[in-house]
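S1.2 Input.
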Amino acid sequence: MSENEKERRIRPGTVALGALSGALAGFAALAFAEAVAGLVRPQAGPVVAVGGAAIDRTPTPVKDWAIRHFGTDDKLVLQLGILAVLTLFALLLGIAAPRFRRTAALGALLFGVVGAAAATSRPDSRGVADALPSVVGAVVGAVVLYLLAGRLAPRPPATTEREAAPGDRDRRGFVITATAAALASAGAGALGRSLGGAAGRDAVASRRAVMLPAPASPAAAVPRGAGLRIPGISPFTTPNGSFYRVDTALVVPKVDATAWRLRIHGKGVARPRTLTYDDLVRRELIERDITLTCVSNEVGGPYVGNARWIGVRLADLLAECGVRPPSRGGPADQLVARSVDGMTLGSPVEDVMDGRDALLAVGMNGEPLPFAHGFPVRMVVPGLYGFVSACKWIEDIELTTFDAYDPYWVKRGWARRAPVKTQSRIDTPKPFARPSAGTVMVAGVAWVQHRGIDKVEVRVDDGPWREARLAAEDSRDTWRQWSLPWEAAKGSHTLTVRATDRTGRLQTDRRTRTVPDGASGWHSVVMTVD
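S1.3 Output.
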């Protein structure tokens, strides 16, 4: 073998050290990127930016599948997937780097191109500043990889006995460089976490300082009997920590209430306004129990919850701005709500001004809104699915028309208008349960906000429908619990439930998926009685 061939040959262990070099370069890139994101804003970090861009471009059926299978952990799964892809990419670059040093370093710069493109393409992008974390991270990663690869490249032939043998690697230099890179990256990562935490401290302090005034129109006490004491049934009021969360935000926005502003403008707004948080909470507040439902909720699914909300009547605020609903000659038929993270939701103006308790909510279950549920202010509109009404972290309301503007979800194949469908769910017994023969309590919840539940019926196998006992009704805007004692015989059985709303409309048995305007069909549970 010639001397040139010896010099070019990859010696044992070089592949492993190359992979380690790639991993260290990838770690350095992410750590320094997050440090810069701490100075810019957490949403500009490459993982969050790429994840957000992936969510924006993911086909609706895939999103629906992810929510159905991963639930509220879908964002964690996405971020872990991005990190896995980045790790694999870094390992491959590291393995190639000892022989293709410059090419591998240039490949590392692609990290910055992808991250910068993703960050600047997001709806809430702040321009070139959002590209900085990915660019800086990529440059650092490329430099680290280039330096480490240089320590792994074969050394020239020795000229004296004391010099290394031909092809030897600079092991000592590699260890020193790798250690320095690891320590610097760890420091950058710690700095990034510190800066990111500092960015949210003002928001946390502003929430702690909020003392919600007593509502001028408090909610009535929940009627006795509205919450059934049956093991396994959903509680009438959903605790904040258990309330479902479905949105596209990989990083929960932390908005400082003292700096928050809400702008109301657009078509038919005779008197545009910009309000502060204090302006809002000094207004007359009302308190209402309202059930919210996500359009991604499958038949029998978990994405529905009931809470006690405090807020300002949205219709009153719009009227003060000179807004009139279409039924009274108003030119705008769509209210577009914009969030601080760039999300846009469109609600029918007629619905939010028809007398229902549509709110700009500031409180949830007796406390200021949690950050995950929209602090400082969010929209709550009974009777509409969340994707056309429940804008969290709201900062802008624009009056327009459905013909003139398609909000975020409409552009992705969802319906423009989406009133909540009549639904019912069996909470207990659970699917595939094995209760003993005898009296088994069948119980659950039913909902159709703004119309109210009038009747719930249960069927065992192919038998007759039996009317369940309804719990006391709080209001037509809340779900309603129900129960039915069943004398269960041994064997396999299927329980099915259906509901009828206050207009006399029976819940349809026609099964549809969530897209474009919510799932429909009867919920069934299969079980075996021992």
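S1.4 Remarks. The longest strand covers residues 491-501.
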